């Protein structure tokens, strides 16, 4: 079957989640199945609101889930934990989808964990580390294909929702397709897992979304490949909480020519993502993409700091306190502060479903390479410089209106 | 001199402030003169930032101030009070402009106070209440013309920065030019002062800005007149604090399809504006324009309340606490809250100068009637339905880019 | 049976809740039964912590519940509503006590609703309004005795947790026992329900707690009666949220000789209590007892305002925002603000159980009249002037240490 | 002159400030002289409020200031900087005391900087580092005596308000007087400056206050010396902002048996103290004394973190955001958060004057050794375990009432 074929038509869209037993993945699956069962509505989904809802997108009911993980604990257990600790999902919803979760858990394969830093623990399972990188990629690719064949899937979308990795040192060597493929062939032991998952997906023609701050499709080598092969992809680091607010609020200060002297952002959260980010190496990418938003919108900002701290009792709730010290007319110093209290995965999950639907749509219509209309979903939208949330949304709305 | 003449060229722009001894007026004058003297910069001015700064606008140094008020206390005293209570302006700046203030104070005439409610006190001076409405208008018009002639002014802009009036009952009778002029001729004793100031300005061909929530140019009769006579005007109720934040933040909830269950806004402020707004009649218009912003951006909002309370110790500082209770995916309830602490007049003053410059520009290029490109400056932009701050700014930027 | 008899010994303590189907009552009953069933712990109960826990208090397992209400909706339904809207109690806990609730609901009698203002709705049931006041009291007294006899209760404590009533006009006429009893005999139609419940309890020798801001035992006539008859009683208006914080925080400003210029308190809540308090008459008492705390601790406070607003989506959650503007050394103005987000009834319920246990203890040891050692539980502790929470707690701790 | 002599009577109290050109010192001197000049009042001073004000304390007008510093920039310049950056003091007050500041600056001697870590910069002056420790102490002692003699001072109080030092390693060796004096004699190069200042003061019979988290009088050796020689002393780390609030608020959670799951404290400040605390070594002591308060009041706290970050634009303003996640009845999770915004030095300065007056009083009445009645002033009151602010104040009030 050649590439263009599987871009035509088809209602069964496969969703391959890398990190399929994590919070975001679990909540996405629970939500999709609860919607399919008529147990919840689609609040929080951008694709269910005008003008985007006018696009002819794959139905939520038709999404078929599978994925990789390194954590052996089952999806059912993960969902129960979340219900217990966060009340999201609630007990009724969980009961309605429990059987679906059990079935989907059977389709989760063991992934690779090379260079994943603090995410890997004693309990982790993983593809044998002694395998050559090329062979690891082949195994991943096999997992994708087996899933596609077994489930009669017309189009497969791969989404990275695995734990944040440390950033690779000297990523320049992967800056074009040749460099990247040479590294693979030479069995470069510093390639991080996310790049392997992305390579396997795009080289097989599967649309790819990087929901995390990990490297994955951000290196030039993958971008080259996707452009040449015309496979749609986008990332990175979904914008769900404090950074979303920043991207809506900072343009106000800019627009009114108010001088931001300091913007302090302090995030506390208690889930596994928070625990992994306690590790400085794993946190580096996240802090960078969070900080860049302000630097870009407010180039003359005086001071810009983001902290992420792990506070176990908060479980999946992420609380951010931001303090903005700014100067206006006649050197008057003023302040604004906000506190954001959100359920991290409940904010992320509908966006996973949105992104799957939108990138499948792009694929169906033959739009390969980066997908700038998806910029509003990301803290660090690859290839898009504008961080103003309103303007990013306009990119999506224009796409929706033209495409109809 | 006919109308078109005084639209051509000229550098001396007159600024006639109705409410010329109030906080906003005082701070605008102090700021303009301090800029002229090189004692402060233009932070907070929208017209001093790209792309708007590329327009060929009248220079701040050339603005000539005059106005009406009903409070006999001099501009110098007002500025001293502000310096003392708020540290804005600071002592150095005040010293640098004190002589200018004294000179400008000599150009402030006694205004009319018909139907101004709680704004009128025992100390107030006012145009004789027994005069016929038509004669009051003539006196106002005379004041405008005398000022223009004495100071060699090429173009005169009238800005209403007087205290908020109660809303008129049955404003429908002023809904077209005929109705309005009939009311004037029949000496309708319920016409509020702001309408008289607006009528006198526009009927004389002077561009008019309504910075307040008062009626003024919002009635159909004035809008008709301005359209027919091709005089630019805009309003109402400048957007400086909590509502500004709302207009930047609410689109984020809409854009992400999050359901706002309740949005509580609680404002406390200690200046004279706050005191006048303690009176329910005077507050009505303000509360309406503040509330409408959310209703428009979030049509499905569950609960939307705005409170304004008078807290004397805060002086000119306005503190707003907003609490937003919203629902996301999987019926998850979340919250955001913010506190905004701003010097009310320091936020307002640069916008007065911006609006003067931009409406003078429109007048110079013959753009009469409502000026939708100025929507971003107002809580209730007359004739513009979109309350999204980003989109409103785009109207201004498009104007600036085309006009150049 | 004479009065002293039922003060001796006995493990079965009856708890008669006036307003037995309200939020506070429901949560108290759910909590007590869940503790008895080993399904929850006693976090939040003052009597379960040293030094108070050393007193020989009636066991929670032995509390027998009954009460009056005017709302026909059953206790089970009320608890289900709370579970559904607030997740407190959670589903597991509710399931464990559902049968107990059904049994207790059978012991709830129809109460009187005279002068209860906005609390009375179309659905309300009530003791026939045409009965003479004296007869209403007799009926209430009968309900108490029947309950006591049917359930083999050794000591009965009556707790008022009914909706807040409007304050009576001219309460002076009830200022001593004679005046109060004359009013009853002369069928004074302005006596509010709470006074009738309190009179019936104390005249029958039952200890009485007023958890609400309603009049009840605050009038001199009831206090006389309780003193003469040596029946312990205390009130009023339990201190659970914002006011609790104030009583802990305001002494800090006093102790450091910092001058509070303004203290703004803004409460939003969404339960039935909030709805009733939307009515100005019903709210008056609440606002008074909330405001008095600061006036007493900070006699030189410049400005002190409390607002309570009804925000339906919050259900039983009460959010308070307090803003404190204060002056320190060298006339430096500073600010503190806090946001309190609590489940109103979950904060109140353990205190109901504490108060029952402590007032039963006082009764058992023959301590009649007001019980100042309970001051820390109340916003307006009858007969106690000190509002400093720490000092109030010391009264309780001293009592506990001596009494042992 | 023997020790007991200079304890008798006398009105001229000398105040020797170690760190005399720092923010706290400057503000203390400005405040005392402004009070003496009748230019400001005593708001913020605990000794000016009942019951403490009834003690016969040395008058503020009679305080004579001198001190050590390592920063050559004059006191006048420091005060001007503070006025400019923070508006505290304001220009009028500064003008009134400028001559006093210049005169006092002449009495500031160069101090020692051994082991002061990040506080020492290229601009610093310092007592020759190659001197033996014993000789450094002699020089300090000489400075104290010269000052006393030149200014006819009856009693000299030494107050450490110098930058926070790193904590010494192995402080056990200084745990008794012998060990400490042996270290001095053996020229131990790890003794920090604060211990030298404290030793010189107490060995000369001068009461000593440690306003900072530095070691100074906290080691056993100094405590022994002060006890044996009967010299009053107290410390450490003045409680002025976030920690003050914690010590008032945490007892409320304890008193109501509410379980604090997490208490996050995030401080941002922009003065030199903040800059020095950027250095981890210098911050260690501060973080410890801040953290201990909660651990002591809430022994079962789940999670307790304090962060201090440097945010230059805030200048002397310290903003703290605290987030408290707690559990109540029926496992209900609730939250409280507060933001404190204070001028750090304006909060500290009145306490310096209070402490000087109170420790001089103790000295006058022959009370040597630790002064527990001063516990309420400190984050880590030496020798006092109770961190409840109310109870600490009671120690002071009891002292004031007895002593009268
Ligand atoms: N609001 C949000 O939750 C949000 C927003 C933006 C980005 N993200 C990012 O999404 C990612 C997932 O977040 P989460 O809260 O679900 O975290 P999580 O820790 O709950 O889940 C991550 C999952 O990835 C698995 N995993 C780790 N390394 C893997 C590997 N090499 N291969 C396969 N599986 C692997 C883990 O075992 C775990 O099950 C994180 O990178 C996070 O930063 C989340
Ligand atoms: N950030 C802001 O300050 C802001 C923002 C939006 C709108 N506004 C509006 O701007 C207006 C002015 O605000 P302010 O803070 O300067 O108030 P202010 O009370 O300080 O000044 C109002 C001035 O108007 C004068 N006045 C009242 N009635 C008059 C009349 N009939 N004719 C002439 N003068 C009259 C008063 O004497 C006073 O000097 C208010 O309507 C306010 O609602 C202010
Ligand atoms: N944190 C708290 O919840 C808190 C704190 C302090 C005081 N209170 C007070 O406790 C009381 C109860 O609060 P709630 O939240 O449970 O309110 P609620 O409205 O849920 O319950 C009140 C109950 O009283 C019943 N009632 C009304 N009038 C009655 C009458 N005359 N006789 C018998 N029953 C009557 C109502 O039908 C209702 O069932 C209120 O007065 C409230 O102000 C509550
Ligand atoms: N609210 C408060 O301001 C507050 C509260 C509690 C404790 N403190 C403590 O008080 C101290 C002073 O705070 P600040 O804000 O004035 O700091 P600062 O940095 O403004 O002043 C410290 C001064 O000490 C001087 N110094 C440093 N090392 C010295 C040495 N070895 N000998 C003599 N002088 C020396 C510095 O040159 C500087 O002038 C700090 O330790 C701080 O932690 C301050
Ligand atoms: Na919350
Ligand atoms: Na502030």
From TrEMBL, chains A, B, C, D:
One of its GO terms (molecular function) is inositol-3-phosphate synthase activity. Gene3D superfamilies: Dihydrodipicolinate Reductase, domain 2 (3.30.360.10), NAD(P)-binding Rossmann-like Domain (3.40.50.720). InterPro entries: Myo-inos-1-P_Synthase, Myo-inos-1-P_Synthase_GAPDH, NAD(P)-bd_dom_sf. GO terms for biological process: inositol biosynthetic process; phospholipid biosynthetic process. It comes from the Archaea. Belongs to the myo-inositol 1-phosphate synthase family. PANTHER family: MYO-INOSITOL-1 PHOSPHATE SYNTHASE. This is Inositol-3-phosphate synthase. It comes from Natrinema halophilum.
């Amino acid at each position: 079957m050649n590439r263009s074929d599987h871009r035509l038509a088809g209602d069964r869209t496969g969703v391959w989640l890398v990190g399929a037993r994590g919070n975001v993945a679990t909540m996405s699956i629970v939500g999709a199945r609860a919607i399919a069962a008529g147990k919840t509505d689609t609040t929080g989904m951008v694709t269910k609101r005008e003008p985007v809802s006018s696009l002819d997108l794959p139905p939520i009911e038709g999404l078929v889930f599978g994925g990789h993980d390194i954590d052996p604990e089952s999806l059912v257990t993960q969902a129960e934990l979340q219900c217990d600790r966060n009340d999201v999902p609630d007990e009724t919803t969980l009961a309605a989808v429990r059987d679906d979760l059990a079935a989907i858990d059977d389709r989760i394969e063991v992934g690779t964990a090379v260079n994943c830093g603090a995410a890997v623990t004693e309990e982790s399972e993983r593809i044998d580390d002694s395998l050559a990188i090329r062979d690891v990629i082949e195994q991943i690719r096999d997992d994708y294909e087996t899933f596609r064949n077994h489930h009669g899937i017309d189009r497969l979308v791969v989404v990275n929702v695995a734990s944040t990795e440390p950033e690779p040192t000297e990523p320049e060597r992967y800056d074009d397709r040749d460099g990247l493929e040479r590294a693979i062939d030479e069995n470069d032991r510093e390639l991080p897992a996310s790049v392997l998952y992305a390579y396997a997906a795009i080289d097989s023609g599967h649309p790819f979304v990087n929901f995390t701050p990990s490297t994955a499709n951000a290196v030039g080598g993958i971008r080259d490949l996707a452009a040449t092969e015309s496979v749609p992809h986008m990332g990175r680091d979904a914008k769900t909480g404090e950074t979303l607010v920043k991207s809506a609020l900072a343009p106000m200060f800019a627009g009114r020519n108010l001088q931001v002297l300091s913007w302090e952002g302090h995030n506390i959260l208690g889930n596994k993502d928070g625990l992994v980010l306690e590790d400085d190496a794993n946190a580096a990418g996240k802090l960078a993409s969070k900080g860049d938003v302000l630097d870009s919108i407010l180039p003359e900002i005086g001071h810009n700091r983001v902290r992420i701290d792990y506070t176990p009792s908060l479980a999946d709730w992420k609380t951010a306190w931001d303090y903005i010290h700014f100067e206006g007319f006649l050197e008057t110093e003023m302040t604004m502060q906000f506190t954001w209290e959100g359920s991290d995965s409940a904010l992320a999950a509908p966006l996973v479903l949105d992104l799957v639907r939108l990138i499948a749509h792009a694929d169906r219509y033959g739009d390969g390479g980066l997908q700038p209309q998806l910029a509003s979903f990301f803290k660090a939208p690859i290839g898009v410089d504008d961080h103003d949330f309103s303007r990013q949304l306009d990119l999506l709305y224009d796409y929706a209106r033209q495409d109809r």
